[in-house]
Automatic annotation (TrEMBL):
Keywords in alphabetical order: Hydrolase, Metal-binding, Multifunctional enzyme, NADP, Oxidoreductase, Riboflavin biosynthesis, Zinc
Keyword Oxidoreductase: yes
InterPro entries registered for this protein in UniProt: APOBEC/CMP_deaminase_Zn-bd, CMP_dCMP_dom, Cytidine_deaminase-like, DHFR-like_dom_sf, Eubact_RibD, RibDG_C, Riboflavin_Biosynth_HTPR
Protein name (database record): Riboflavin biosynthesis protein RibD
Lineage, uppermost ranks: Bacteria, Pseudomonadati, Bacteroidota, Cytophagia, Cytophagales
Catalytic activity: 5-amino-6-(5-phospho-D-ribitylamino)uracil + NADP(+) = 5-amino-6-(5-phospho-D-ribosylamino)uracil + NADPH + H(+); 2,5-diamino-6-hydroxy-4-(5-phosphoribosylamino)-pyrimidine + H2O + H(+) = 5-amino-6-(5-phospho-D-ribosylamino)uracil + NH4(+)
Protein's pathway: Cofactor biosynthesis; riboflavin biosynthesis; 5-amino-6-(D-ribitylamino)uracil from GTP: step 2/4; Cofactor biosynthesis; riboflavin biosynthesis; 5-amino-6-(D-ribitylamino)uracil from GTP: step 3/4
Annotated EC: 3.5.4.26, 1.1.1.193
Family affiliation: In the N-terminal section; belongs to the cytidine and deoxycytidylate deaminase family.
Biological source species: Spirosoma utsteinense
Length: 350
C-alpha cells in the first residue's frame, strides 16, 4: 500500500468542501501499479453530481483503460453499493475491471456498511482497508458524527479578550477579534450547513449570519436561533428571509417565507430535541457562534465536537465583577494553535 497516493486522494477530497453535504468528501486516485503512473484522479465535487470514483474513471485516457486491471484505485471512503442520486461506484469499478481498491475508511452509512467492499470482493477485486484511517475520519468528521451519533457535528466558536471576556457588561457587544479573524469566520460559515445563536446574541448583536465578508466563499448557511417564547423582534436581520432560518420555540409550528418556526416540548431538554430535529432535516454540521449561555449549555451537555477560540490582545481594562461577560471555559484536547493577524486561534477537540 502506498500512503502518498492516499494522501493525494485526501487532498483531492477537500476540493469539494462546502458543496458536498450531506454526502462525505471523497477523493480517488487510480495508479497503474507496474509503472506507478497515475492514470486518473477525481473527487466528489458537488452534492447530487458524480462521485469521486466516477470522476477518476472519466479522467482516464481511452488508450489507458486497458491498464485498469493492473491498477489500484486509492479511495478515501468505501465505494457506494446502492443507487442514490448516482449509480453505485462499486459497480463502475467492477465494470472497468480495476484490479485493486485501497480505502481509508468503511462507510458508516447503513445503506453501504461493508456492502461495497463485499461486492468488490465477490467480483474478484482485491480490497484493502484502513490506510490512513485516522486522516480519513478527520476529513469526514462531520459525516461520521452525523451517521454514528445521529446528530450534527457541533463546532463551538467564540472570541475572547486576553483577560477572558467574551462581551461587555450585561452582554454589551464589544469588538474583540481583528478583521482577518472575522473574514476567516465568514469562510468557515460557507463550509457548514448551519450557524446558530441564542436569544440574547440575536437581540444585542442583530447578526446577519451570512458570508458577506468573504465573497465567493460559497452558500450562506441555514440560520438557527433559539427564542423559546418568541420575544425577538421580527424586524431583526435573522428574520429578513434572505436565507433559510429555523427558529426553535415553545409556542408555534409555522413557516413564513424562508423562516420556519419549530415548536419544541417545554417539558423536555431543549438541545436534544433541537439536534434530533436537525438530524431529520439532514443538517450535518452546526457552527455555534454564541453567546456565552448557549455555548456553555452545549459544553455542559457534552454535545460538542470542536472548539475554535480566538484570543485577542484586547483587554476590557477592568477585571472587577460586572466588567464584562466571561468567556466559556475551554475543554478538550488542543490540536492546533496559530496566529491570525493580531489574534491567536486555538482549536480543541474531544
Amino acid at each position: 500500500m502506498n500512503e502518498r497516493y492516499m494522501q493525494r486522494a485526501l487532498e483531492l477530497a477537500t476540493l469539494g468542501r462546502g458543496h458536498f453535504s450531506p454526502n462525505p468528501m471523497v477523493g480517488c486516485v487510480i495508479v497503474h501499479e507496474p509503472t506507478q503512473r497515475i492514470l486518473g484522479e477525481g473527487w466528489h465535487q458537488r452534492y447530487g453530481e458524480a462521485h469521486a470514483e466516477r470522476n477518476a474513471i472519466l479522467s482516464v485516457r481511452p488508450e489507458d483503460e486497458a491498464l485498469l486491471p493492473e491498477s489500484t484505485a486509492y479511495v478515501t471512503l468505501e465505494p457506494c453499493s446502492h443507487v442514490g442520486k448516482q449509480p453505485p461506484c462499486a459497480d463502475l469499478l467492477i465494470e472497468k475491471g480495476v484490479g485493486r481498491v485501497v480505502c481509508c475508511n468503511d462507510d458508516p452509512n447503513p445503506l453501504v456498511g461493508g456492502q461495497g467492499f463485499q461486492k468488490l470482493r465477490d467480483a474478484g477485486i482485491t480490497v484493502e482497508r484502513g490506510l490512513l484511517k485516522e486522516d480519513g475520519r478527520l476529513l469526514n468528521a462531520r459525516f461520521f458524527t452525523f451517521m454514528e451519533k445521529q446528530r450534527p457535528y457541533i463546532m463551538l466558536k467564540w472570541a475572547e479578550t486576553s483577560d477572558g471576556f467574551i462581551a461587555g457588561e450585561n452582554g454589551r457587544p464589544v469588538q474583540i477579534s481583528g478583521p482577518l479573524s472575522q473574514r476567516l469566520v465568514h469562510r468557515w460559515r460557507a463550509d457548514e450547513d448551519a450557524i446558530m445563536v441564542g436569544t440574547n446574541t440575536a437581540r444585542t448583536d442583530n447578526p446577519r449570519l451570512n458570508v458577506r465578508l468573504f465573497p465567493g466563499a460559497g452558500k450562506n448557511p441555514t440560520r438557527i436561533v433559539i427564542d423559546k417564547y418568541l420575544r425577538l423582534d421580527t424586524g431583526l436581520n435573522l428574520f429578513d428571509n434572505t436565507q433559510p432560518t429555523l427558529c426553535y420555540n415553545f409556542l408555534k409550528q409555522e413557516t413564513v417565507g424562508q423562516t420556519t418556526y419549530v415548536q419544541l416540548d417545554p417539558g423536555q431538554p431543549v438541545l436534544p430535541q433541537l439536534l434530533a430535529d436537525l438530524y431529520q432535516r439532514r443538517i450535518q454540521s452546526v457552527l455555534v457562534e454564541g453567546g456565552t449561555t448557549l455555548l456553555q449549555s452545549f459544553i455542559d451537555a457534552g454535545l460538542w465536537d470542536e472548539m475554535r477560540v480566538f484570543r485577542s490582545p484586547t483587554m476590557l481594562g477592568n477585571t472587577l465583577p460586572g466588567a464584562g461577560l466571561k468567556a466559556p471555559a475551554v475543554q478538550g484536547r488542543l490540536t492546533s494553535r496559530q496566529p491570525v493577524g493580531d489574534d491567536e486561534l486555538s482549536i480543541y477537540r474531544l
